[in-house]
From TrEMBL, chains A, B:
It comes from the Bacteria. This is LacI family DNA-binding transcriptional regulator. It comes from Pseudoalteromonas fuliginea. One of its GO terms (molecular function) is DNA binding. InterPro entries: HTH_LacI, LacI/GalR-like_sensor, Lambda_DNA-bd_dom_sf, Peripla_BP_I. Residues 3-57 form the HTH lacI-type domain.
Length: 338, 338
DNA sequence: TTGTAAGCGTTATCAA
DNA sequence: TTGATAACGCTTACAA
């Protein structure tokens, strides 16, 4: 029914081996021959069978996406970014949301990979910080690229967003609005992304000679509920900060909620900022000052790096390692009133 | 390196054909033989190669997910639901966000399917309403299941959420709060989901003998920006409704924003409701009364239906066609003050 | 530069 | 109930 390599070979009067060479862009084909074959391929609409190809060459033209984070918006952008590059190169994307807490997680990922002989995987934060997973993938010889906030792997294996720098911008934004007493709702400190963001923020405050006592830093779990509790701690006291920065938009939204409950006006009496720029940030009232990572582009880079690995050394594209998030200023931060 | 069917055959002293029968659960295998083979399979950790299997049997064990809607939350839930069933049955999920506006869209989907010889696809709204796509899939003999708000296909090919009924609940919720002058921000009327929701809403109002003049119904585009304009039309006038219902949460959020700009208190002076129960709905202030579809379960059902199609008639599971969304009451709707 | 022949790991045909 | 043997559509030694 559908056109095979044999049909193309017959029609163009060459061997299937030559057709194979053409579709694989082998240089060892005469110009005339190549053109004739390409002609026939176009005429017949031939498209090589992935399974057969994979069976013969042990490749699948399938890339995997491993993640745990339930931040749907982020994931959707990653998928679209990754697919934009996949489409050009004939790869497909197979998704694998897992639960990194599960003891079986790493084996589960390895099975996922071997089941479909994936040509490589992209790993999203926070799973991307998992050293054991990365080690297991290296051992299994599975190409991978991690998206992360810290430089924790070779340039070939990672796309880093410089969140430390982004949080410096956030700090200077607030200080320049006059804030010197700032509360910080951090993420879990066992995540590098959390420590990184906090470190960047504190480092920039230093520059302005602003101190942040430990009592102003409370650790959340990156979800709404924990954000509520942390914000409550920071705000439900006469001695409250004039600004709150949260490790992500979910917790910043929680801070807005607590402020609303306590009848504290944002931004007049309190500034609030988040991190992620998810859909919430632009829709919530007041809209949220936050930090946006170039997620789509990071995913593009990741796929390119993955595919680079299967190229000959001289054909490798030079690809950047680090991308820069940007500060998005909105309604929730304003001049300090005190 | 990895164990193949030949190894299993040799080790268990039978032909590979017999091993094949065992792994495919053919009844034509002696009990003793079957057990011996299963034993060896367990010992060796043999797992049949998908590509080889697919090449020989023209199946891929790959399901596709086709969508256009950029509602990320919804899509993430669908993916997780679908995968929960896929995992049990050894299928993987390949994603394909497209743009249904593109003239090439249907061909693009067909190529997507044939490229990887997908065993079936799930189509999400609003693309799921596309008749031409469904027809093309039938012609291409590609099994599909549509997730939709209206019963527009055979029970085997669709999972319907009864949005008409859900909107009846919404209407009665508002009427019982005392609202009789209600504004409705509809979705594009060329979508069945839009007409269906509006129809359900109006039908229930009839029951209460409440009239909705045409001027109270404005058509949005299901996005935030159009929601802003529609809400402005309805609210920025002395003669404004006491409640606004929007076709989705994005536009309801826009209504909240416009109300905030016009200094109209929600829910004291105005009730607002949406549809979707996306992350926005629970985080925004005031939190949004809305309707939640059992998206995860719908996706589970869709995969089961897809796989049912490749089963023998007598092994087919009976699967429901319709699911029921639920009304989620939150802060944004309250007693009518007039 | 091109072709021949042997796989890749399954399932399918047909006979025993 | 079983088993040889031939596909499936492609890539890859190895020759020529």
């Amino acid at each position: 029914m559908s056109v095979t390599i044999n049909d193309v070979a017959r029609l163009s009067g060459v061997s299937k081996r030559t057709v194979s060479r053409v579709i694989n862009c082998s240089p060892a084909v005469g110009e005339a021959t190549r053109e004739r074959v390409l002609e026939i391929i176009k005429e017949t609409g031939f498209s090589p069978d992935k399974q057969a190809r994979g069976l013969a060459s042990s490749r699948s033209y399938l890339l995997g996406l491993i993640y745990d984070n339930p931040d749907a918006l982020y994931i959707d952008q990653v998928q679209r970014g990754a697919l934009s590059v996949c489409a050009e190169l004939g790869y497909e994307l197979v998704v694998h949301p897992g639960s990194s807490k599960h003891e079986d997680f790493i084996d589960d990922c390895l099975r996922f990979i071997s089941r479909s002989k994936l040509d490589g995987v992209i790993i999203l934060p926070p799973v991307s910080e998992n050293k054991a997973l990365a080690a297991a993938l290296r051992e299994a010889q599975c190409p991978y690229v991690r998206l992360a906030s810290v430089d924790l792997d070779d340039a070939d294996n990672i796309v880093v967003s410089d969140e430390r720098a982004a949080m410096r911008d956030m700090a200077s934004h607030l200080v320049e609005l006059g804030h010197t007493d700032i509360g910080f709702i951090s993420g879990p400190q066992h995540f590098r992304s959390s420590t990184e963001r906090l470190a960047g923020f504190l480092a920039e405050l230093q520059v302005y000679n602003v101190q942040l006592p430990d009592s102003r830093i409370v650790e959340g779990k990156n979800n709404y509920e924990s954000g509520l509790m942390c914000a409550q701690t920071l705000l439900d006291t006469p001695n409250r900060p004039t600004a709150i920065v949260a490790n992500n938009d979910e917790m910043a939204a929680a801070a807005l909620r607590v402020a609303s409950n306590l009848n504290i006006k944002v931004p007049d009496e309190l500034s609030v900022a988040g991190f992620d720029d998810n859909i919430l940030a632009s829709r919530i009232i007041p809209s949220l000052t936050t930090i946006r990572r170039p997620v789509y582009n990071m995913a593009c880079l990741a796929v390119q790096k993955l595919i680079n690995k299967s190229r000959a050394t001289k054909e490798k594209l030079p690809l950047q390692k680090t991308v820069t998030p940007t500060l998005v200023k909105r309604e929730s931060t304003g001049q300090c009133s005190e």
